Amino acid sequence: MTARLTAGLADTAGVPDIDEVAGHWVDAGELAHLPSLRNQVGQGHVNADLSSLAWLATPPYTFGYHTGVLRLDRAILPAQRFRWKPWGVQREHAGPRLTVRTETRMMLQRDTLLWQVEVTNTTGDPVDCTISQDLFAMVAQTEAGWGWLYDVPWTGGNYHDFMTLERIRSSVVREPGSAYLLGPGPRRLRLGKPRLPGIQRDADTEPMSLAYELPRHVSPDTVYPYQRSAVATVRNIRCRAAGADRPILVASAEIALQPASEVTLGTFELRAGQLIELDLRLDAPDQTGVVFTHGNHPDSLQLGVDAGRLWFGISGEKEYANGDVAAGRWHQVTIALDDERVALSVDGDEVAATGHWSASPRWKSLPDGALVSIADTCSAARASYAFDTVPDALTMIGAGARAEWALRLAAHQTVSIGIVCAYGDDALTAGAAAARAAADFGAALARSEAGYRDLWRSMFTAGNPHFSGHLPTLTTTDEGISTSYYMAALLALYMRNTRVSATEPVFLTGGPRLGPTTTYFWDHTEWSRLYALLEPAGLRSWLLRALGSPYDSAFGFDTRSGGPLGNSYAANHYSLFRLVEHYVCISGDRAFLDEQAGPRTVLAHLERMAYGWKTRQTAATGGVLADFGADPWTLLECVPNYVNAVASFNAAYAGMTRSLAGLLGSLGCADESAAAASEADALARAVVGMALPSGRWQIRHPGATESIGHCLDFGLVSAHLHADLSSAQRSEAVAFASEKLLASTWMRALALDDPAAPFSDRPDHGAAGAFCAWPGVTAYGLARLGRKDLAARLLGAVHQSASGGLWGQAMEIVTDERGQRVRVAEDGASNRDSIAGVATAEAVLAGLFGFEPTFRDPDGVALPRSIEMPGIGSLTNINVHRA
User: Fold this and answer.
1) Backbone conformation region of residue 804, classed left if phi is above 0, alpha if psi is from -120 to 50, else beta
2) Which of 47, 91, 807, 870 would bridge 79 by S-S if both were Cys, CB 3.0 to 4.6 A apart?
């Protein structure tokens, strides 16, 4: 024990304290995307007030709406500043007499939430005040629906409604805060059979903007309750503003609907004050089906019938008419729209209307003085609130409760209140867990922080109890590079989840508004060397699952159910090949190549993926290069012309095929190795032939070519074909990246002067900023082109761009009266957290220090356990087995 402890201390001697890596106070006005919470089993998102939490998911538990706001003297206070730490988020509001500071934590690896509320009298006189906290737990338990767009519980059922929940979150500091029902944007009215929610690719083939709707990236086991049309006849359909005779939409003729009917009418936007009117005749009794849907979004207004009773749904709410509608005769149906209320009338009488979400009938609450118990009537989920200071009043409000404390604070006094919410599938167990944490609230707070600190030290310690490997220790005099490297390591720890998968610890791709069980193939390859060093056993298990999945038709998989998710990415072959290559070369586990993964061995998968470019060749784009098709979703999603034959993944295929040649040679397959090397050289020559002056690259479409200035081409060509480029081409590439892409403390994915820039304004892959992996990819490319000085400069700056926490999916460059700065963007459905940001540390490891395990190395070549790099520093304690 003494020897192991001594070794562990030696391993972490150069590792900074976790407080030095990230987490400082940031004014609310500096933030676009608010901080997240994670606890190694789940994730959540803080809101703009002082206490509420939304997007909480700890599979199998998922929360809807939010957990409730805090009030001071009946007023909801906005947070003026935030501080993120991996174990919790602090929020603060400083008023003229009182400062309220809160801290919200998810207890490490437990289904328990903690809130500490501190009220400080900043004056020299006594102050009386009242603190109240709303207590909601709209929680459900489910084993299904864990996709990228995962199931969230609503009054109307379990499904992912991103836009509505974001509207609710944006209203938390307003009273009554219920103007969330009407989604923006024009939508088409469809009669009959509903479309499954999500962007409709038969009608919308444009780049993915995410302005009003999301793709249907749900898990295969997601269930939609209504998939048929009602058997009915409709006529005299009108949408008009109340009090106005001129309608927005008219369809007077009788339209007969059968179960498979789908009739498309006009397009319009729902607005407060509108009436949607129609005559309806149900042509069969006791039936179930849909009459109309406005759009094809989760928050769409929808009218239907269930066992003969009319209902309507909108933005998470679902209301049934208070009586059956007689079949066989005409009824006049009216839906009246308002920001805070939608009502259904039949034959002039109101028969149903929405209420505020906090009064949802789905959840039942029971306050008893010391605890508040909440039960979901649609699942086994149960929750309990407890307090370290007994409230002066505890009252039921709708589906939750409100706790209230009357305080008298002496001059400069601080009073602290602890609140706990525990949840699970048993009311007694949840109640006991909440009571225990409340009884020793300070210790409960401390355990989560201490647990994260222990995990942080373990990440850099050989033989630690938490990871099957460990990360190298970086020692450098460049504080910027050091901070960026360790910040990226902290991001890997933060995205780790030990419960969602039954087979291995996983590192989630993003969230917390999306994907509490999701891993993308592409994002993991951005840190593949570090992944193999830190968690080789977990990576091995994950790879077998990934290779056994239909990776040609999905971007990743749900690690809980194993089901495929989303559309195909052109990056998939490259991503999985490189992950396998780095795992095998770092671990020395050559037996892995003979493992069966789905229908073939790992080695067979490698051969299939490395030669994947040959199956994509088309005569229309020259017959040599891979043509990735005309759908922008396959490549960068939002860059409209980045389709067909592009330099980036063709360069990656050339690199893969060369690596395959090295592997086949080491296996004694000399002829196959020589053939692979020859074919890789031919592909490499074709890619180099796409180079344009000034460091840009050609895109080849059928019958046309155009130029592009994107970092993905720079990064992958530099990584894999640096030796194939001429000296002039290397110089032009470096000049392009440094002059057109690098900006502020970050970079742009697409050059501002590129012709595609005006049509691609997403801050991850467009010109407004860059995906969190791109600085690492670009720095690695600069290093491979012989400019480690520029790589080091970039890597030494990026830590300044994390909005007080860690990097998110999309990092936007903002210019205003305060100058130019970089922040985590909230644009569209951008993720606050993204595992791909670990690419920064990958670039330090491979770009600055040259750690390059590859199949091209002769079998038996040792990997270094430490690396000294003059002018930069040293990497020690490298976890390699092929030494």
Assistant:
1) left
2) 91
